[in-house]
């Protein structure tokens, strides 16, 4: 385990070096659950909190975050991901757990409110929180489908496999070579995003996904959020939830997102009181294919809230 963690840290350092960024991580313990998150913080300006997808590390945001300026970046590594502590979702329903996690995270960061940027699970956590505590969300941005929060999302076959008892954890623990790991993640991210992910990032994700606590976390989160083919009802935003989201919302949709195509999602997105929808090149993590364009649209969105300069 120690050797695996050292290899993850080495890959993280190489990834930060690739983008000429210097940042150190800090561990933040959540008071209610006792879960430990990792947070990288740099820059000054409006606070922007990044919440990653299930199974990806916080450093998956680096190709995008490296393009930003004039903001205070908080890359959050959720429990049971990367080198963060294990997740303890089991004692409570997923949505209540997610809401408490984001609320206590902001408290630990001394932020009364923040701009939230989320991908997949991170997007779902952000939308759940924006509906429950609108006064703490200055703006919200989804990069890729905020699955499973939207109605009509289908669970990808690979995620259904990872939920299966016995075989799912086994698949996660097998040391897949880099080329095979890219093939596997392309089933979720899409071919372009998997191909454009920096090798150092693929290495962080590949190595950290094998940690026993991370294997249990991914399996547990997937089972809590999804059925084998579609999300569990409690994961999907209701009409009342959507109406409670007061923050300006930006949905950056990869034109080849394998989780859900934009034409299937438009009716759900149109229900948000204040939303801008923009299709960009890429898949489920479009900033890996179009980092400059995604950074440009995110910066514009922050400026349009009237709080960023």
From TrEMBL:
<protein>
    <submittedName>
        <fullName>Alpha/beta hydrolase</fullName>
    </submittedName>
</protein>
<dbReference type="InterPro" id="IPR029058">
    <property type="entry name" value="AB_hydrolase_fold"/>
</dbReference>
<dbReference type="InterPro" id="IPR000073">
    <property type="entry name" value="AB_hydrolase_1"/>
</dbReference>
<keyword id="KW-0378">Hydrolase</keyword>
<dbReference type="GO" id="GO:0016787">
    <property type="term" value="F:hydrolase activity"/>
</dbReference>
<dbReference type="Pfam" id="PF12697">
    <property type="entry name" value="Abhydrolase_6"/>
</dbReference>
<dbReference type="InterPro" id="IPR050228">
    <property type="entry name" value="Carboxylesterase_BioH"/>
</dbReference>
<feature type="domain" description="AB hydrolase-1">
    <location>
        <begin position="48"/>
        <end position="296"/>
    </location>
</feature>
């Amino acid at each position: 385990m120690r050797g695996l963690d050292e290899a993850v840290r080495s890959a993280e350092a190489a990834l930060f070096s690739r983008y000429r960024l210097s940042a150190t991580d800090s561990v933040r313990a959540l008071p209610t659950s006792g879960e430990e998150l990792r947070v990288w913080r740099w820059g000054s300006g409006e606070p922007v909190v990044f919440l990653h997808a299930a199974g990806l590390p916080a450093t998956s945001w680096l190709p995008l975050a490296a393009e930003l300026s004039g903001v205070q970046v908080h890359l959050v590594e959720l429990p049971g991901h990367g080198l963060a502590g294990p997740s303890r979702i089991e004692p409570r329903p997923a949505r209540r757990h997610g809401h408490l996690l984001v609320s206590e995270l902001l408290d630990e960061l001394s932020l009364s409110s923040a701009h939230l940027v989320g991908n997949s699970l991170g997007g779902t956590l952000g939308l759940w929180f924006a509906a429950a505590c609108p006064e703490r969300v200055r703006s919200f941005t989804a990069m890729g489908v905020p699955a499973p929060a939207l109605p009509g999302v289908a669970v990808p076959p690979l995620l259904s496999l990872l939920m299966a008892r016995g075989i799912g954890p086994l698949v996660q623990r097998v040391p897949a070579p880099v080329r095979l790991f890219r093939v596997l993640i392309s089933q979720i991210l899409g071919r372009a995003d998997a191909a454009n992910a920096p090798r150092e990032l693929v290495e962080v994700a590949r190595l950290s996904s094998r940690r026993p606590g991370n294997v249990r976390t991914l399996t547990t989160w997937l089972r809590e959020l999804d059925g084998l083919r579609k999300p569990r009802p409690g994961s999907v935003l209701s009409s009342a939830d959507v109406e409670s989201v007061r923050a300006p919302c930006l949905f950056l949709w990869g034109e080849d997102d394998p989780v859900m195509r934009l034409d299937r999602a438009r009716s759900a997105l149109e229900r948000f009181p204040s939303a801008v929808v923009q299709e960009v090149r890429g898949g489920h993590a479009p900033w890996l294919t179009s980092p400059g364009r995604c950074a440009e649209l995110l910066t514009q969105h922050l400026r349009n809230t009237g709080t960023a300069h």
